[in-house]
Write a structure and sequence with these properties.
alpha+beta, globular
């Protein structure tokens, strides 16, 4: 996510390096009454979720990116909640900021 980090907080690149298997959910899928369902599943299944994730806006909607160390964990999360599987290279950037893949093509 954009902005400054606090001392000791993981950087975006550290998250992408350690937790490269990512699933994006639109905000409506993980807030409110869905929050305990999503996080209960993660805890019960003992998934390798990073404490911090990423976010982006698409079509006027905020998406949260759940980042996993294990590909199989991301696949199980995706099978349960849907969303969009992605990698750090394919993850959209914030508005007016190109994704890593777009920056590499230049």
């Amino acid at each position: 996510m954009g902005g400054r980090r606090r001392k000791g907080e993981l950087s975006s690149s550290a998250i992408d390096s350690g937790w490269p298997h990512q699933v994006a959910l639109p905000e409506s899928s993980y807030v409110g009454r869905n929050f305990p369902i999503v996080h209960g599943f993660i805890a019960n299944e003992e998934l390798s979720l990073c404490a911090r994730g990423h976010g982006f806006y698409r079509d006027g909607k905020h998406h949260h990116v759940f980042c996993f160390a294990e590909a199989e964990h991301a696949q199980r999360f995706h099978a349960r909640f849907g969303g969009e599987m992605m990698t750090p290279e394919t993850r959209p950037g914030w508005p007016n900021k190109p994704s890593l893949a777009e920056r590499r093509r230049k």
